[in-house]
Amino acid sequence: FAACGTVGALSAWLWAARRTSRLTDSALLAVRLLPTASALFAVALSLLAFALFEHRGHEETGLVLRSLAGLGLVLIVHASWRAWRLHRRTRRTLTQWMSSARPVTLPGIDLPIFMVDSTFPVVAVVGLIRQRIVIARSVLEGCAPDELRAILAHERVHIDRHDNVRRAIFATAPDVLAWLPISDRLQIAWHDRCEETADDGAGRLGDRGRVLLAQALIRVARLTPVPPSIHNLPASALYRGEDLTRRIHRLLGPPPAIAAPSRRLRYLVTLAALPPILANRPIHDLVEVAVTWLP
User: Fold this and answer.
1) First to last CA, the chain
2) Are 112 and 133 in contact (CB under 8 A)?
3) Residue 292: pLDDT above 90?
4) What is the mean pLDDT of residues 40-63?
5) CA distances, 130 to each of 85, 122, 212 (Å)
């Protein structure tokens, strides 16, 4: 787990170091999950090879393998701690919001919607399984009905794509990459791509949908009295206090062409995975060499 996860982290770092701004949100997620996927794949193959070919008794391992095992344990414990910390922060903020929540009904959304009294003009889909939409009273009172429809179309895309689950995976992946600055860069770039994809959902309202969402974003940004406090929550928020210049210009420009999904990375992963799956015996021999010869 530790060895292959570290190799995967290095590969992800080399792949994304200069391509972050050019990758789609799906590609960014795939790059971010490469270390964890590599680690889990290696563990599965190792267990299979062990079950098929290992028939000996107790074997002593050296310092290198024990150190790697310790690193693997540290990675898993640290990821569990990040998940617990994220859950606690989310629950604390959601409890604060829900203390003043009032259910409201808005067209086009089948999830529970709650109006909350918040100093920040929050509009967010909160939760992983029991999702709900939280909207600040200032947003409901300050936006026109058509602008609210554009906002809900934006949030609908987040719901359909399960972006909260993806955001939580980004924050809790058990790998070395989480300790490097590239992890934050990947998450910021992924968040920007996700918001742009959700912005395109306003086009479902017709030709004026994108303009209405741009108006709503400007109106919500003007309601912001203090810096936001929801950066690290697994919540898909319409606005977090960031610079909206790029999103506004993008919404007011011509609708972007729908990019065909890239299959190159999928093919490369499949081709790389086939030989190890078909070569369990060499994998077992490699582990035996490591046990025997590593100090």
Assistant:
1) 19
2) yes
3) no
4) 80
5) 19, 19, 29
Whole-number pLDDT of residue 235: 76
Residue pair 108/38 in contact (Cβ under 8 Å)? The answer is: no
Q: Which two tokens stand for residue 79?
A: 């990821």
- When pLDDT is cut at 50, 70 and 90, the band that residue 79 belongs to is very high
Burial of residue 157 (number of CB atoms within 10 Å: 0-12, 13-18, 19+): buried
Q: Read out DSSP for 34-59?
A: HHHHHHHHHHHHHHHHHHHH------
Q: How far apart are CA 210 and CA 275, in angstroms?
A: 48
User: How is residue 204 written in tokens?
Assistant: 């479902």
User: How far apart are the C-alpha atoms of 38 and 174, rounded to whole Å?
Assistant: 11
Percent of the chain predicted with pLDDT > 90: 31
Selection from 230, 235, 224, 232 nearest residue 194 by Cα: 235
β-bridge partners, 115: 102, 135
Query: What length is written for the chain?
Result: 295
At how many degrees (to 10) do helices 264-277 and 25-53 cross? 10
In the chain, the DSSP E strands lie at 102-104, 113-116, 123-126, 132-136, 235-237
Nearest to 76 by CA among 116, 124, 43, 113: 43
Report the 10 Å Cβ neighbour count for 216: 26
Whether 115 shows a pLDDT value over 90: the answer reads yes
pLDDT of 274 higher than 70? no
pLDDT in tens, 222-247: 887 665 555 556 678 888 888 889 99
Give the strand pairing for 132-136 and 123-126. antiparallel
